[in-house]
Design brief:
Elements (H helix, E strand, L loop, with lengths): L2 H15 L3 H20 L5 E6 L4 E11 L10 E3 H7 L8 E5 L7 H28 L5 E9 L3 E5 L5 E5 L14 E12 L2 E7 L3 H11 L1 H4 L3 E9 L3 E8 L6 H6 L4 H9 L4 E6 L4 H8 L7 E5 L4 E7 H8 L4 H10 L2 E7 L2 H4 L13 H9 L5 H5 L3 H7 L4 H15 L1
Helix pairs in contact: 2-4, 5-8, 9-11
């Protein structure tokens, strides 16, 4: 293969990969120098001239003329008689420059050289891809479903870059088919070998925060600030928002008329229930707002242990705790306090017994099912409708009736 033919084939890489001229020249020179080192032992005395735009290249080997019989290094020295075959007037001590044709390296070396070039260009592409996506970490990105696997969905963007959406980074209700467009945030980029692995997430708090930026103009413009986001993906989220402009109602602006603005975000997150809360530096007020929709009677805060006793009327307890305990858990995460619910009852209601006191007669997992919906005393269970308890827990009607029988006996 002649130099020019090889360079022509190299030009294809330039066109396909959109590598700039300077980078291509540097890659080509590095590849050729490696080939020369393998062939001659050193590339120090070689000049490589590359012009990828014109598709030509020259390799020149420089050697010093020495007297016949005194050649010690054939790569850097040439005998006088050999030098005079090139130019008849060479003398000892002069430098001879002789062009090296690629064919002189041997066919095997040329094939290795081409493979090395492909590897170097891929390495260059991967480095650029790594840098490109490293700058996109924490940003929303859209890609198309290419392949659905049990543990991950493989996505491909418009430029053919592969992105991984692991199962644990998907919202539980997510269901994807080949060709679907998927939105998420770029969560991490890692080099696996020489290839970057780009990981997308739809469960991150950052994803919800960025959706607020995209969907709500006042957030995008900085008029409203998202102070903190906590979520149980696919179930419930709480978002604390604030505005430095007293004329703007941050919650109203985020929710929109009849929920028009928040609706698109809820739909994107698989109907995740989103509570938008006014942020405040007043800890008591912030905890009270975080426990919405429950109405809090009073709060006792222990700053040292970062705990708070929240006093609630009996009918507000289940609202504060929420389905599966989600509401109180998220309120604690949002405010940074461990919240303990304290019930306020009438004198008659004061004669109550914790469900855990019945552990001899009621199995622990059954007591836990009631606790999940905020019922952890005998009276709180007895005050409920059986059909409603069947709907709100994973308990059979027969089990609930047996529990109520045991509890009633306590007060008879």
């Amino acid at each position: 293969m002649e130099n020019i033919a090889l360079i022509d084939s190299f030009s294809e890489f330039k066109d396909d990969k959109l590598i700039d001229r300077v980078t291509l020249m540097a890659i080509l020179e590095d590849v050729f120098r490696n080939a020369l080192k393998k062939k001659y032992g050193s590339d120090d005395n070689f000049d490589i001239i590359i012009n990828p735009d014109k598709g030509d290249m020259e390799i020149w080997r420089n050697r010093v003329v020495v007297a016949d019989g005194e050649v010690e290094d054939p790569n850097s020295e040439i005998s006088l008689s050999e030098a005079r075959k090139i130019e008849p007037d060479f003398e000892v001590g002069e430098e001879v420059s002789e062009e090296v044709k690629l064919i002189q390296l041997g066919r095997r070396a040329i094939l290795a050289l081409r493979q090395n070039l492909i590897s170097k260009i891929h390495e260059h592409d991967n480095t650029n891809l790594y840098k490109q996506f490293k700058d996109l970490i924490g940003e929303i990105y859209t890609a198309e479903v290419h392949h659905v696997r049990p543990k991950a969905v493989i996505l491909v963007d418009d430029e053919g870059n592969e992105i991984v959406l692991p199962k644990e980074k998907q919202i539980p209700s997510d269901f994807f088919r080949k060709g679907d467009n998927v939105r998420g945030i770029i969560e991490s980029v890692e080099l696996k070998g020489n290839k970057p692995q780009i990981v997308m997430s739809r469960t991150s708090e950052k994803f919800l925060e960025k959706l607020f930026e995209q969907e709500i103009p006042e957030v995008f413009d900085g008029l409203i600030t998202v102070k903190k986001v906590v979520r149980i993906p696919g179930e419930k989220a709480k978002v604390a928002v604030d505005s430095y402009d007293d004329r703007i109602d941050p919650v109203g602006a985020c929710v929109g008329m009849k929920g028009s603005r928040i609706h698109g975000i809820v739909r994107e997150l698989g109907n995740e229930n989103i509570d938008v809360i006014n942020y405040t530096t007043n800890t008591q007020l912030f905890i009270s707002r975080a426990l919405s929709p429950a109405k809090v009677s009073s709060i006792k805060i222990d700053e040292q242990s970062h705990r708070a006793d929240v006093f609630l009327k009996l009918e507000e307890v289940s609202k504060a705790i929420g389905r599966g305990g989600h509401n109180i858990k998220l309120a604690g995460l949002l405010t940074g306090y461990e919240l303990d619910v304290i019930r306020e009852g009438s004198p008659a209601e004061d004669e109550d017994v914790e469900l855990t006191e019945f552990s001899d007669e009621i199995e622990a997992w059954v007591i836990e099912e009631f606790a999940k919906i905020g019922l952890d005393t005998a009276r709180s269970v007895l005050n409920q409708d059986v059909a409603d308890l069947v709907r709100r827990t994973d308990l059979e009607e027969e089990t609930i009736l047996e529990v109520m029988r045991i509890l009633k006996e306590e007060f008879e």
